[in-house]
Design a protein that fits this description.
The complex is a heterodimer of chains A (340) and B (134). Chain A is of the alpha/beta class and 340 residues long. Chain A contains 14 helices and 10 strands. In chain A, α4 crosses α11. Chain A is globular and about 65 Å long. About 7% of the residues of chain A have low confidence. Chain B has 5 helices and 5 strands. Classes of the chains: A alpha/beta (340), B alpha/beta (134). β3 of chain A pairs parallel with β2 of chain B.
Chain lengths: 340, 134
């Protein structure tokens, strides 16, 4: 793996592709390569694109990529589609919408399947983003799967998160429900040429007005803490970003320049007053805690005597032990094991 | 985690009939593989580049236009230029029997015409790729 590091930094696309596979497969030796590449990351502006299936994410990603290419910026795209929970197979079809981008050496598209656990995907996606970053791409577009918790996770690796909506997907109550809309830095109402777009825009606008600023301060604790900064003249200023609402028609490229502009505004906002540093620190905090939990869990499980878990489950089922005490016992066993 | 078999399913050339390609993509998916489906009217350059970016183990081409004797060597050549000599190339579609031997000398590992059992294609890929899961 380590022999692919230098070619990747030099821009070898095959090396990048093979390292991406190694990340997905958690192949041995990949950690060493990732460690060697980590100092080369931090260049790219990472944009997460999420939203329900069929809202036009892939088409919009294509239009964004075209816009960035027109500005002479290079673009790495990570397009994530679901794996079958039954067979483990996947049909990755995001490239179909991106055919206009093929043949351009300034664009690299990689399709990724969700595979097993969501935690595993978040880790693989973060590592894949770092590979694209160290390969020198200016913009990295991460397109998540259709719906669910995983998209919220992946947004935690992005600088700017776009949530794509389309007309006809739900009423105004859907718009004030918790979850995906809360993570949006920019809300995009795509398919703005379809009927019902006014209703969708109105519902989302009302949601933004309801939500700002107090509820966001409390609910978006991981992704983007709203905080109070001291400005240069010593005054307190409110530091929350008010999500923008942009209408687009991705299939014709209409209003994509508005979207590019909104992303730049968000970027300018973040790069002021050390907000970007703070955001990246939160992302790293989340990541370290997740990796630590994962490793600790592995260690604890590995240290348990064979069958200990089964014995514990027996006791739980016969009601001679409760789950809280059981966990304490298991941890105590691990502590004993470590002490030896 | 075990390695997954990754397959690129592509339709080069100008014919617009992709039902066969979709059936194959679905069958490979159901066999546990990760299938990257690229859609209609792909140029040889697009296919070779997608195969490189996606780091696939094999490429399946669906050709019903009769242009296989022109398209296949071009795609194989571009793949080899991309350093993908070890990536297998399979073909399905309308291929006359007398062309099969010629295609195999061009570096095609298998030719699958109408009526092929999808299980045979899955078995063929497993045999080519060996130990990976899926």
């Amino acid at each position: 793996m380590i022999e692919l590091v230098d070619p990747l930094i030099a821009g070898d696309r095959r090396a990048l592709a093979r390292l991406l596979t190694a990340v997905e497969n958690e192949r041995g030796g990949i950690e060493v390569a990732l460690s060697a590449l980590y100092p080369h990351t931090g260049h790219a502006w990472i944009i997460g694109i999420t939203g329900a299936p069929g809202t036009g994410k892939s088409t919009l990603v294509t239009e964004l990529a075209k816009a960035y290419r027109a500005q002479n910026e290079t673009v790495g795209i990570l397009a994530i589609d679901p794996s079958s929970p039954f067979t483990g197979g996947a049909l990755l079809g995001d490239r179909i919408r991106m055919r206009e981008l093929s043949g351009d050496k300034g664009v690299f598209i990689r399709s990724m399947a969700t595979r097993g656990s969501l935690g595993g995907l978040a880790r693989a996606a973060r590592d894949a983003i770092r590979l694209l970053d160290s390969a020198g791409f200016d913009r990295i577009l991460v397109e998540t799967v259709g719906a669910g918790q995983s998209e919220v996770d992946i947004a935690r690796a992005a600088h700017t998160t776009l949530v794509i909506e389309a007309p006809g997907l739900g009423d105004d109550i859907q718009a004030i429900k918790a979850g995906i809309l809360e993570i949006a830095d920019i809300l995009v109402v795509n398919k703005a040429d379809h009927p019902g777009v006014e209703n969708t825009v109105r519902a989302l606008k009302a949601m933004l007005e309801l939500g700002h600023p107090t509820s966001r301060t409390q609910t978006v604790s991981h992704h983007r803490q709203s905080a109070t900064f001291l400005s240069s003249n010593g005054e307190h200023q409110d530091d929350s970003w008010i999500p923008q609402l942009i209408r687009t028609v991705a299939t014709s490229g209409e209003c994509v320049t508005d979207l590019v502009g909104a992303i730049e505004e968000h970027r300018t906002f973040l790069t002021q007053n050390g907000r970007k540093v703070m955001l990246e620190r939160q992302h790293l905090h989340t990541e370290v805690i997740e990796r630590l939990s994962e490793q600790l869990l592995k260690q604890v499980l590995a240290a348990l005597p064979v069958d200990e878990l089964n014995v514990t489950l027996d006791s739980l089922q016969s009601r001679t032990l409760d789950p809280q005490t059981a966990v304490k016992h298991l941890l105590a066993q691990h502590a004993m094991h470590m002490a030896k | 985690m075990t390695d997954k078999i990754r397959v690129l399913v592509a339709k080069p050339g100008l014919d617009g009939h992709d039902r066969g390609a979709k059936v194959i993509a679905r069958a490979l998916r159901d066999a546990g593989m990760e299938v990257i489906y690229t859609g209609l009217r792909q140029t040889p350059e697009m296919i070779a580049e997608a195969a490189l970016q996606e780091d696939v183990d094999c490429v399946g081409l669906s050709i019903l236009s009769g242009a296989h004797m022109a398209l296949v060597p071009r795609i194989r050549q571009l793949m080899d230029e991309n350093g993908l000599n070890d990536v297998a190339l399979l073909i399905g579609g309308i291929i006359p029997d007398e062309d099969i031997a010629g295609l195999k000398t061009m570096g095609v590992s298998g030719v699958f015409g109408p009526g092929t059992n999808t299980a045979d294609i899955v078995a063929h890929i497993h045999q080519l790729i060996g130990t990976k899961s899926g």
